[in-house]
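[Structure tokenization] protein backbone as discrete codes
[Encoding] learned vocabulary of local backbone shapes
[Protein] chain in single-letter code, fold in tokens
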Amino acid sequence: MKAIRRSIDRITLAWAVLGGLALLGIVGVTVTNVGAFTLDRIARMWGGSVGALPGYEDFVRLAIGAAIPMFLPYCQARRGHLAVDLFLRRAPLALRRGIDRLSLILMVGIALFLAYWMIEGLFETRDDGTLSPVLGWDEWPFYVTGIVSLILWAVVAFMQVFEEPPLSQSGLPGAGS
């Protein structure tokens, strides 16, 4: 089980790094577009013009929608999601661990529910032939990273159900660790 867990941890880290690289690409395109606007303002003083990147908004919308979910499995693997332990701080350890396991099971259910609807959305978008307005790109391929992310998130949470949760400083399993 530990070997599988290590493999899943490496996969979630690599997946998050890919998401980070995608965000860096978005930043690069944004900087280029802002630079084009700046150059255009300067060129206008002498009667010239510099065009911005056509379809910039299309690209950013699609790329961010693909990149952001890629961080969810890594965040789950590190138990980095928000936990409110105000009411459980003084509860018995067995109750805290039970609630931790219940929340992980709910997390698995939520991630799989969202993955199901993203798959439905992918097929509907593909069948409708939905294209981005300016670039004319098919939108359905950008659903794939979200679907993979949600399934990987569910796998990580499912594996955590069977692990002993780390205790945080406040005593709630997983909170703040």
